[in-house]
Amino acid sequence: MIAPRLEIDLEKIKVNARTLVKRLALQGISVTAVMKATLGAPEIANALRQAGVKTLGDARIENIVKMRHRGVPGPMAMIRSPMISQAARVVKYAELSFNTELEVIRMLSAAAQIAKRMHGIVLMVELGDLREGILPKDLHGMVREILRLPNIALKGIGTNLACRSGVSPDAVNMRELSALADSIESTFGFPLEIISGGNSANLAWALSGANTGRINNLRLGESILLGCDPLQRQPISGLHTDAITLVAEVIESKVKPSQPWGTIAQNAFGAPSTPKTHGHIQQAILAIGRQDIDPLGLEPPQDVEILEASSDHLVVKTGRYAYPVGSEIAFRLNYSALLRAMTSPFVSKLWVNRTPILQSPPTLTKKPRLVSSLQEK
């Protein structure tokens, strides 16, 4: 089998999506499933549709175009502010886009007029995380200008938290977003369809039993794909945390000193190696590296420790076990490692549909050999 590869269990992803759609529906909240970490994979998009997700979102118009060309049905949302240079494609392929700049919206209006269609927009509001967003004091003026533009329909407002600065969604900032929605409606005299409270980081708040106010939409990616809460990276009850695993092949397996020797300078990525172990260790090298994954985002199986990664090598310590050359080791991934692996052309994707078993650990495809004589000093 080809390695390295991502083994992607579509049934487990469907279980995660279906579970979250149902739980949030009880709070009056819909789900926009975010596809950006999957490179717009139609296999995953269709699985999400089957799980009850109505709208798919992506930050790259190229991924939306890919899904359209592969026949993925239903509404699509461009969740990053469109580039002016992409306005025509956004209008053509996405029913909705999230925006913060009036000049961009003017270009969307012009493109929509040429295409003879309406384009919906959601205005993103800055509530403290300092990524994208219109300052609340400027929101009414922005709405007033937008309502003058032809072929543009203001569908709602939204915000994004916990991405740049780690500001957590809570009752205070969610209440502020609800109040801004009320204010727009009372001032301009029309209802807003979408009040998008944020991303997977909102789940703990949304499912806590708190008053969710006007919030009726969340944009979920990590929680569906990896089954965890981004605020603390803890598993979400009832969701699979192993729907996607990374499998890499061993290309070297030797006992080596744990400490380098010679004059030490910077390594290939600008820092000297700082080994934490001493003596000789059982070491393995896998054929994958920083070009393909974020090594800090990998969770190895028990008794395997990640030591370092170069551009195309992952060096691990394997304790008392020697993994034969040609054997494979499976890792769980966090969002950062998944994002990089999915977009690497050197990591194959294997779609599996086995019957889901909640919280089952990743497996090793070949059993390592016990090396009883190895002792660390």
Quickly describe the structure.
This protein has helices at residues 10-25, 42-50, 61-69, 87-93, 102-115, 139-146, 171-188, 203-206, 222-226, 335-343, and strands at residues 5-9, 30-34, 55-58, 76-78, 96-99, 119-125, 152-159, 194-196, 217-220, 228-229, 234-235, 244-257, 280-286, 298-299, 305-309, 314-317, 321-322, 328-333, 348-352, 369-370. The chain is an alpha/beta fold and 377 residues long.
Features:
single chain, 377 residues, alpha/beta, TIM Barrel, Lyase, Ornithine Decarboxylase, Chain A, domain 1, 2 domains, 8-stranded mixed beta sheet, 8-stranded parallel beta sheet, 10 helices, 20 strands, 25% strand, elongated, pyridoxal phosphate binding, pyridoxal phosphate, isomerase
What would you note in describing this structure?
- This protein folds into two domains: 10-235, Alpha-Beta Barrel (TIM Barrel), CATH 3.20.20.10; 244-370, Beta Barrel (Lyase, Ornithine Decarboxylase, Chain A, domain 1).
- Helices cover 26% and strands 25% of the residues.
- The protein is built from ten helices and 20 strands.
- It has helices at residues 10-25, 42-50, 61-69, 87-93, 102-115, 139-146, 171-188, 203-206, 222-226, 335-343; strands at 5-9, 30-34, 55-58, 76-78, 96-99, 119-125, 152-159, 194-196, 217-220, 228-229, 234-235, 244-257, 280-286, 298-299, 305-309, 314-317, 321-322, 328-333, 348-352, 369-370.
- The two termini are 38 Å apart.
- 43% of the residues are buried.
Specify the structural class. alpha/beta
Query: Mind summarizing the main beta sheet?
Result: 8 strands, mixed
User: What value does the Rg take, in angstroms?
Assistant: 24 Å
Number of helices: 10
List unreliable stretches of 5+ residues.
355-365
Indicate the proportion of strand residues: 15-25%
CATH superfamily of the largest domain, please?
Alanine racemase
The string of secondary-structure elements, in order, is EHEHEHEHEHEHEHEHEHEEEEEEEEEHEE
Name the helicity range: 25-40%
Shape: elongated
The CATH class name of the largest domain reads Alpha Beta
